Amino acid sequence: MPPARRGAFSFEVVVYFLILITVFISFDVFARPNYASREKLNCIQCHVSPWGAGHRKMSGKIFGARDLEGSVNNDSDRYYADFRMLYLKDFKKTNQGGALPNGLGLMTAQVSGYVPIVESSDYTLSGLANYDAGSFQSGPREVYAIWENFTDIWYKPTSIVAGKFFVPFGLMHDEHRTYTKMQANAGLREYEVGAVFSFDPLTSFHLDLGGLDGFDANSGPGTLDQNKTYGLVGNVRFNHEELPVMLGASYLYHNTEAINKPDPYAYSGYGVFSLSRLIEGFNLDVLGEVVFAKNYNNPADNKYITQFIPNSPGVFQNYLTSVRNETSRGFLGELRFEVTPKFILLYKFDHLAFNKNFSSDAFIRHGFGFRYQFDANTLLLVKLEEEEVKIPNFDDKLQTRFDQSNILAVLRVWL
Predict the structure, then answer these.
(1) Any domain includes 201
(2) What is the pLDDT of residues 16-47, one digit of tens each?
(3) What CA–CA distances, in Å, run from 368 to 33, 100, 381?
(4) How many structural domains does the chain have?
(5) In terms of Cα–Cα distance, which of 336, 339, 300 is closest to 320?
(6) Is 341 contained in some domain?
């Protein structure tokens, strides 16, 4: 690898300066983490999952309606449906190999049920099953049992989730395409089999600890004893009711039990700053996450890496070989400004360096757009994205999904 070029140091300074600011201001994650920070909500207040995203409870449906009129179907926790249509137009690499297909498609069509099995004054035991009929990845998604404890004893778990689920790693961003999620193969489309114990020892403090069995490799979602692997995950977050900042950290580890093959692991630091808690009526949220991942720069352990860099002979394969044992670093930054309850302006910045010591050799994405909510359960998201590659010798040669200039639109309806 060539020595670090000009610009690497400045990026290092910016990233760590933002982290230090967040740490010194204070110490929950959500599919809408800015709402968790702004409203000081715990994830399980709106979702079945204690770490957020997925099936919404009745309170989550009402909150998502944002006081707008429409057919909401908010009268039950027991069912939830989420349909998303995607339109994509790539202006840089139309019809070239590796580019995302242009046109309109059914992105996701999820239907889930949440059924009580045992109910008492102290706890409940329920089951959840989710199926996706979308064209990108159809089939069962989350399938698990959840035990929720209502006794006020700090050392007892507030919930236990056992089954198949996406892991509580990092910022639960509602977009699975963020570089930080793909970097560690830990997005909302990757699932593990296992159990997670969640604790709320303080009102503002949440902890998830879990054991996983079934590494989500290239062949598909994790299943019991696939590749004879196991994993560990930990997630902690703090969201004090009087502070404008939410902070969190996560750790993820997988044991491959393969000879002469290092085990992949990753750790994340994330935060949300809500200016509305300082200036009433000014709803600007700043989200940020930094992820470091070791031994994930291998197509055998990360199904996304070949979407960035093709595993083909020549310069690309040489580069993959050179970074295979290096630590990658990803950064996500996002601004969300709520002009009205219906209309939100968005800016997102993704940065991924497969070798953290050469941060200027990176994949970079800027996304500008807006979200407009027509009624209580229908919205449109439109974004213009510009992606570029700063790795030497890759200019005009890289035919992968993350060297594009595109516009995308997502129409979303939920019930």
Answers:
(1) yes
(2) 444 433 333 333 333 467 666 666 667 777 88
(3) 19, 19, 11
(4) 1
(5) 300
(6) no
